């Protein structure tokens, strides 16, 4: 999907409520470098980042101004051109079960200046983004979060989890010693040239992944200005299969060491593997680099095959974290966009404080798992019926969250006996959802 929505006007309801507090809510003119620079510096300050250099502003100006860039300004301040709040949003493609994707409104850069916190500005921004997305016909909003305490109140639910891994290289021995293909160091330019294409092939089959924008590939490979230490330390290794075709990359840095040179830490910043051979060879590579005691990797899948490949799975300490949060806006469109496992008739009684997803919906799937979704008043007798908030439905949507956990925790109520078993059977995704980037 192209980003046709970048100029969509800000939501009038939020504009009116912010105006009551003498705050102006509007789009940033991203053709104006100075206006964009003010917005970007406010965004960086909001995340406790540095004051950005001209070079950094230029690279963002080239890299992210295709997005809908929104600010809130307080004209009573001595620097009225610097926004006191920011957001950035764009239309994304989110992979869903069945090798399909759904259009989703990606929301990022949500900041409110500490000088203006807890006056309801973020609420106006978030509700404004949701109303705008619904207005543009987008069935879902998505975001990755700085804190897991903020977004459930707006109807978001965590749907994709990630693991941060710490691996003790002295205990991490592979069960199999079979080696195929070759690994070699390559340049950042080669990575940029080849990795996105490989990623695109993987993305389509991994629920939870989104299209990765080109500036993110530059950041991963150390090509953006501003973090010279990262750029200097970054190494990239490519895996080629026995036919010489590139099938994966690992981007990593080795740091530390000190007096004891055997004590280095290797950080995997990105590992991309198109098939099992590439996956095994790249993990084997990083785990066998000499003089390294610990390998760390963030944002890995919560279902890494690596743990099954090692003779001692306790070599790996995995810390799970909620990563991608979803917010369904249009239930029939969202439920129709994915495929399911087998036939069922399921009723959803959905509550939504903001109204978008409120109502009763019937999902009927056939033997092939193809859906038919209707909005109805009363559920038929044969339906397995559950009652849940839009946040819980959003968590379940990609098939990576266990229904029984949400029933046991009180997030989902079974209105017919064993409804959760039916829901689990058809919703569960055979591929564990995973999102390999922040946005
Ligand atoms: C998708 C992303 O970009 S994630 C990044 C989020 N941004 C950050 O973490 C940057 C640092 N933090 C901030 O900039 C701000 O503190 C924000 C954006 C998190 C909140 O902005 P504020 O304008 O202070 O929030 P606002 O006053 O609108 O609060 C709205 C509601 O969220 C709650 N809330 C706000 N911040 C938090 C928080 N950090 N933790 C828990 N609840 C919070 C408020 O209590 C309020 O609740 P209620 O309306 O249900 O009673």
From TrEMBL:
GO MF annotation list: aminoglycoside N-acetyltransferase activity
One Pfam entry name: Acetyltransf_17
Keywords assigned by UniProt, alphabetized: Acyltransferase, Transferase
Active site annotation, chain numbering: 151 (proton donor), 439 (proton acceptor)
Limits of the N-acetyltransferase domain: 23-180
GO biological process, alphabetically ordered: aminoglycoside antibiotic catabolic process
Binding-site residues for acetyl-CoA, renumbered to this chain: 110-112, 118-123, 146-147
Keyword Acyltransferase assigned: yes
NCBIfam families linked: PRK01346.1-4
Annotated family: Belongs to the acetyltransferase Eis family.
HAMAP family (alphabetical): Eis (MF_01812)
Quaternary structure, from the entry: Homohexamer; trimer of dimers.
Protein name as catalogued: Putative acetyltransferase
Taxon lineage: Bacteria, Bacillati, Actinomycetota, Actinomycetes, Micrococcales
């Amino acid at each position: 999907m192209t980003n046709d929505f970048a100029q969509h006007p800000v939501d009038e309801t939020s504009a009116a409520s912010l105006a009551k507090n003498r705050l102006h809510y509007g789009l940033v003119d991203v053709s104006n470098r100075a206006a964009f620079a003010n917005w970007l510096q406010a965004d960086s300050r909001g995340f406790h980042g540095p004051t950005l250099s001209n070079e950094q502003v230029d690279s963002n100006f080239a890299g992210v101004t295709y997005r809908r860039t929104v600010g809130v300004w307080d004209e009573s301040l001595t620097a009225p051109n610097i926004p006191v709040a920011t957001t950035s949003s764009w239309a994304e493609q989110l992979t869903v079960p069945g090798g399909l994707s759904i259009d989703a409104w990606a929301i990022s850069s949500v900041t409110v200046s500490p000088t203006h916190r807890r006056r309801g500005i973020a609420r106006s921004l978030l509700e404004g983004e949701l109303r705008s997305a619904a207005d543009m016909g987008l069935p879902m909003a998505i975001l990755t979060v700085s804190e897991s305490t903020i977004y459930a109140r707006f109807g978001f639910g965590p749907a994709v989890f990630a693991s941060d891994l710490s691996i003790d290289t002295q205990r991490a021995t592979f069960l199999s010693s079979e080696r195929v293909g070759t690994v070699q160091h390559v340049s950042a330019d080669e990575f940029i040239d080849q990795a996105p294409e490989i990623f695109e092939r993987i993305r389509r089959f991994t629920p939870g992944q989104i299209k990765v924008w080109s500036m993110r590939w530059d950041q991963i490979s150390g090509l953006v200005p501003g973090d010279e230490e990262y750029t200097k330390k970054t190494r990239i290794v490519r895996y080629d299969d026995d036919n010489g075709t590139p099938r994966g990359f690992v981007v990593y840095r080795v740091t530390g060491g000190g007096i004891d040179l055997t004590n280095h830490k290797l950080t995997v910043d990105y590992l991309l593997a198109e098939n099992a051979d590439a996956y095994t060879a790249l993990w084997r590579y990083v785990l066998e680099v000499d003089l390294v005691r610990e390998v760390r990797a963030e944002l890995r899948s919560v279902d890494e095959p690596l743990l099954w490949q090692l003779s001692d799975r306790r070599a790996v300490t995995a810390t799970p974290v909620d990563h991608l949060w979803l917010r369904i806006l249009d239930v029939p469109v969202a439920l129709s966009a994915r495929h399911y496992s087998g036939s069922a008739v399921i009723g959803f009684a959905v509550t939504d404080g903001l109204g978008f997803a409120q109502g009763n919906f019937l999902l009927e799937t056939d033997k092939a798992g193809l859906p038919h979704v209707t909005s109805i008043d009363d559920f038929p007798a044969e339906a397995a019926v559950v009652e849940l908030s839009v946040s819980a439905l959003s968590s379940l949507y990609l098939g990576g969250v266990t229904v029984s956990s949400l029933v046991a925790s009180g997030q989902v109520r079974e209105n017919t006996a064993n409804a959760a078993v039916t829901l689990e059977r058809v919703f569960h995704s055979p591929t564990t959802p995973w999102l390999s980037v922040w946005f």
